[in-house]
């Protein structure tokens, strides 16, 4: 509210300065009155008891979930204790410097991760906005107008200048504004946890893509070597046929096998390009299919510490994010409940009015006002009640989804561990099968050249050798993929703090090693 007085006199410059000081003294006095009024109203609120804060959650703390159907150990007969140190620097266990550099580069260049980071910044700004309600809102307005009036052929002009300093403040009697701050604070924490999970997921996806690329390269090398061996065998069989030592059927069968293998090489070359482009997209580069891997898949036999099932609630960043989001929704329920109660506002204003802009604050009395207001909903056809019910149902719904996510996390660990046991058994059996198949392939071809077996026996031995070698490569990759899945299911960080800091500092140039990129310009 603004009150103004017209000024018809002038004052000295000294009086003008005194008037300015008087203005700010008035503002200070009004602020003191506001604080006193606020304390008085809050005291009344405490005496009355205000209203209770509702909740739609069955579990007020995530730790209470451990008391309901959460086992004390994993079911896959793996000894684990609360003191188990779960690896946080599992990327280093692969002992692959190229992978380390690619991950460090991707953490700075991945577009989806950058978008999640911006989401954290947005959540922080929303928190800053709600935190501003703790303080009064102060605004200054200045207006200057000139009016013309014509009466009986007489024209008159009237000037008016207005200066007003306004202060408004909403008293948080029911704690509605505090609940809004709490909701935004929880949403900000949830965004941070979600961002950490996105980073871990990106690291896991890049590691998987890197080993898929390595597998594709290894299989291509195997197919090319096999095609070269078959072509050498074809020359030997053709020479024997020309000497009358074998039939034309053997020549045709060998040619057919060579052509099939060359077709497999062409198919695998395309698969290699697809794997390379998949990695480049994760890194944040244009998919030129130029990423290469010049090493074999590593075999890692080290056991993975699992800890206890209940530790997932604090280790998994995505579970933490869901829990914090659930708490934020519950705070929103409190806000919806308190929307049905009156709101209290205090407004104060100090102003001056003069005929000329230069005459403002030139001395004389100021106009000031102090006003309190109460606004309460009376009739809205049940809209506010329905909004509160909707908020409560949303909380209950998301709590069920949170519980489903928790048990799905337990299932992810259990399935990954049991799958690893199965993959290890398959790997050991196929490793022996590969050794026997390679020996049988060599022996069958030697016996064929001596006329002891038919070429059909040679083809069968070659097929078994090829299948065994291919399966060993694929199982090695599956073991690595499974290892990454276990680390992802367990949560936590992918690097220890020291190593992570070193890697981030080493990627300020945002460039990959030349041996990994082999970039070509877009013009070419």
Structure characterization notes:
With 524 residues, this protein is of the alpha+beta class. It has one domain (13-70, 99-297, 340-516): Outer membrane efflux proteins (OEP) (Up-down Bundle). It has helices at residues 13-48, 97-109, 111-131, 176-242, 248-283, 312-315, 317-338, 383-449, 455-490, 497-505, 514-517; strands spanning 137-151, 154-171, 343-354, 367-375. A four-stranded antiparallel sheet has the order 1-2-3-4, covered by helices on one side. A hairpin with a 2-residue loop joins strand 1 and strand 2. The radius of gyration is 38 Å and the shape is elongated. Residues 1-27, 34-50 and 497-524 have low confidence and may be disordered.
Write a brief caption for the model.
This protein is 60% helix and 10% strand. The chain is built from 11 helices and 4 strands, in the order αααββααααββαααα. It has a 4-stranded antiparallel sheet, with helices on one face.
């Amino acid at each position: 509210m603004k009150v103004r007085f017209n000024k018809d006199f002038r004052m000295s410059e000294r009086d003008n300065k005194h008037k300015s000081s008087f203005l700010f003294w008035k503002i200070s006095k009004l602020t003191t009155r506001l604080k006193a009024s606020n304390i008085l109203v809050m005291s009344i609120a405490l005496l009355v008891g205000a209203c209770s804060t509702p909740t739609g959650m069955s579990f007020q703390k995530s730790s209470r979930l451990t008391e309901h159907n959460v086992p004390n150990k994993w079911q896959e007969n793996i000894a684990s204790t609360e003191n188990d140190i779960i690896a946080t620097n599992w990327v280093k266990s692969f002992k692959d410097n190229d992978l380390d550099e690619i991950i460090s580069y991707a953490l700075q260049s991945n577009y989806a991760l950058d978008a999640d980071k911006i989401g954290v910044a947005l959540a922080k700004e929303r928190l800053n906005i709600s935190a501003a309600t703790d303080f009064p809102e102060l605004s200054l307005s200045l207006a200057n107008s000139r009016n013309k009036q014509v009466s009986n052929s007489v024209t008159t002009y009237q000037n008016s200048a207005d200066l007003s300093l306004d202060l408004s403040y909403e008293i948080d009697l029911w704690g509605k504004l505090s609940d809004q701050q709490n909701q935004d604070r929880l949403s900000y924490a949830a965004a941070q946890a979600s961002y950490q999970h996105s980073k871990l997921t990106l690291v896991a996806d890049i590691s998987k893509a890197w080993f898929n690329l390595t597998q594709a390269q290894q299989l291509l090398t195997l197919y090319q070597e096999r095609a070269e061996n078959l072509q050498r065998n074809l020359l030997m069989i053709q020479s024997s046929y020309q000497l009358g030592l074998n039939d034309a059927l053997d020549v045709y069968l060998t040619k057919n096998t060579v052509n099939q293998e060359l077709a497999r090489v062409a198919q695998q070359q395309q698969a290699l390009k697809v794997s390379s482009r998949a990695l480049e997209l994760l890194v944040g580069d244009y998919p030129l299919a130029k990423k290469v891997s010049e090493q074999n898949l590593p075999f890692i036999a080290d056991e993975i510490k699992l800890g206890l099932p209940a530790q997932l609630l604090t280790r998994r960043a995505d579970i933490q994010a869901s829990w914090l989001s659930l708490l934020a929704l519950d705070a929103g329920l409190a806000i919806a409940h308190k929307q049905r109660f009156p709101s209290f506002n205090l407004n104060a204003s100090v102003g001056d009015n003069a005929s000329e802009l230069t005459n403002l604050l030139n001395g004389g009395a100021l106009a000031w006002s102090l006003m309190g207001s109460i606004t309460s909903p009376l009739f809205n056809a049940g809209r506010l009640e329905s909004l509160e019910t909707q908020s409560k149902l949303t909380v209950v719904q998301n709590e069920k989804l949170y519980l489903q996510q928790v048990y799905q996390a337990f299932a992810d660990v259990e399935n990954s561990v049991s799958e690893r046991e199965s993959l290890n058994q398959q790997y050991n059996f196929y490793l022996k099968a590969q050794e026997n198949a390679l020996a049988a392939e060599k022996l069958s071809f030697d016996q064929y050249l001596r006329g002891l077996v038919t070429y059909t026996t040679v083809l069968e031995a070659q097929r078994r050798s090829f299948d065994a070698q291919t399966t060993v490569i694929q199982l090695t990759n599956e073991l690595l993929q499974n290892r990454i899945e276990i680390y992802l299911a367990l949560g936590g960080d992918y690097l220890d703090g020291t190593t992570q800091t070193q890697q981030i500092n080493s990627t300020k140039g945002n460039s990959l090693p030349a041996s990994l990129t082999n970039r070509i310009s877009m013009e070419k």
